[in-house]
Amino acid sequence: MEQCPVLSVVVPVHNEQANIAPLIDEILAALRGRLAFEIVYVDDASHDGTLAELRRLQRRTPELRVLAHQTQSGQSTAIRNGVKAARAAWVVTLDGDGQNDPADIPRLLDARANAPAEVKLFAGWRVQRRDSLGKRLGSRIANAVRRRLLRDDTPDTGCGIKLFEREAFIDLPYFDHMHRYLPALMQRAGWKTVSVPVNHRPRTAGRSNYTNLGRLWVGLADLRGVGWLIRRSRRTVVREYPAAEEASP
């Protein structure tokens, strides 16, 4: 009988053929023998050999599941579809470019084991960025603006490695690029979040699907939208009363 996973590793990819096998091998090395897990790759309509490589690796990796978008829909949609398909109660996400280190997954799990139940998100914090100077400066500015406007007390929301409760994620409002605002959205829902220092590595194959300018314009519009959601949020504690017991004769 197949064992139900206690952790789902969700990896969105677009044109990352050369990075698939090395990253899967690192995930297996980090988690096999530690807990029951599954790996859910979501191919966002790649036009290289990404999907064929995933299908090839499925034959020798029983933990691997493969989902494929029929039309390109973006990283947030890929993450959301992967989380919806996940069978575990907790999910960890990784970027498919290999810059996140799967060896950090146990560190996030240890942080969860020592945290109170109201913490539903453990966000990776790339203390030592391994990107170009332009990308580092762009991220630094974007993070400063976001923290000032959203007050989410998170130093790095752009890090792809995150651990969160599946149910809490599914309950969040969905929109394109939402994956960059998960701490603020979790806090809006009434949950706490924690940032955990993690490793960051240079890209060794392929090229980035984003540009600093493109992220800037999209980010400004998103910030306004997320700020509106936070201002409009209403939370209350709900108590359900059991049916009254009949009086004893």
Automatic annotation (TrEMBL):
Q: MF terms per GO, please?
A: dolichyl-phosphate beta-D-mannosyltransferase activity; undecaprenyl-phosphate 4-deoxy-4-formamido-L-arabinose transferase activity
* UniProt keyword Calcium, yes or no: no
Q: Return the EC number.
A: 2.4.1.83
Specify the Glycosyltransferase 2-like domain's residue ranges: 8-171
Report what the protein is called: Dolichol-phosphate mannosyltransferase
What keywords sit in the KW lines?
A: Cell membrane, Glycosyltransferase, Lipopolysaccharide biosynthesis, Membrane, Transferase, Transmembrane, Transmembrane helix
Q: Which GO terms describe its cellular component?
A: plasma membrane
- Source organism of this protein record: Rehaibacterium terrae
Protein's GO biological process? lipopolysaccharide biosynthetic process
| One protein family per Pfam | Glycos_transf_2
Domain of life the protein comes from: Bacteria
Tell me the PANTHER family matching this sequence.
UNDECAPRENYL-PHOSPHATE 4-DEOXY-4-FORMAMIDO-L-ARABINOSE TRANSFERASE, UNDECAPRENYL-PHOSPHATE 4-DEOXY-4-FORMAMIDO-L-ARABINOSE TRANSFERASE-RELATED
